Amino acid sequence: MIDLNDYFYFVHVVEKRGFSAAAKALDMPKSRLSRHIRQLEERLDARLIQRTSRQFTVTDIGDEFYRYARNLVDEMEAAEAAVERKRNQISGQVRISCSVGMAHFILRELISQFLLENPNVSVQQQVTNASVDLIGEGMDLALRGHTAALPDSSLIQKPLARVQWHLFAGPAYIETHGAPAQPEDLCRHRGLKVGWQPATGQWSLDNGDGLTAAVPFSPQLCSDDMNTLKQAASDGLGIVALPAYCCRDEIKSGQLMRILPGWIANTADISLLMPSRKGLAPAVRALSDFLVRELPVAVRE
Fold it and tell me: What domains sit in the chain, N to C, each tagged with a CATH number?
């Protein structure tokens, strides 16, 4: 007798590259998951996965079976999604990973908005500046800010927005130290730096017309937390380069001033990553579509 759960579990084990990661993603005991795969292999009378304490390998026949099983799971999920759309009740769980800065300045309001629109969905948000193995950690989605192209991988990468970084300082600092009139003047000013390593920094500026300038500085404060740096700049401790959208409210209230407004301190991209485009659970697809639609608006200057 065919048990479609066996197909579903097998697909997850293959895509998560192991039983431990799949069990974590499915929130079920590893022993139960292993039992389902074993009974599937017994029914098919074929070894689909070679597993030892140190190695996990999908056999040739397992790889071929996976392609058919993946299509079957896709159809099952599409059928359920069609019913849920008719009922307008998307449900399920989404695991998303993001940096501390994105959690503070982008997702804080967007996650709430998404959950208000989708009350039957639950979100597990991992907030870390460390590099995360999406598949190993059982993540459905991840937001990444990056200044260079992301490395090629099996992950699906969807560009969402391009953002500019500007230089900011508090009025008290400008009143005491004066405002730099050109990039070279920055060498005489105190700096604050995103990231705690290395302990030295460099402002790399671009005026948009082909002129660039690089000014090294020794930061008075280095931090992975943009909120801490923004507060330090507001308190008059120095000049900081931050994404423009992070400082909109402080610019409006007068707590911060833009320094060298004719120059851009950096340009970064924000991308959405996911293990696969196919077979997304309805809740995962709903959050993905929501971020594609709303995030570019949230970071607009």
Answer: 4-86 (1.10.10.10), 88-155+274-298 (3.40.190.10), 163-268 (3.40.190.290)
Q: Output the pTM of the full model.
A: 0.68
Listed in sequence order, the residues at least 6 apart from 52 whose beta carbon sits closer than 8 Å to its beta carbon are none
**Strands 49-51 and 92-98, sheet pairing:** unpaired
Q: Please tell me the distance from the alpha carbon of residue 255 to that of residue 222, in angstroms, as a whole number.
A: 20
For residue 43, the surrounding DSSP H or E stretch is helix 30-44
Contact (Cβ atoms closer than 8 angstroms) between residue 209 and residue 236: no
Mean pLDDT by 10 residues, the chain (301 residues): 81 85 86 89 89 79 87 77 65 93 93 94 93 85 85 80 96 96 95 89 90 93 94 97 94 96 93 80 90 92 71
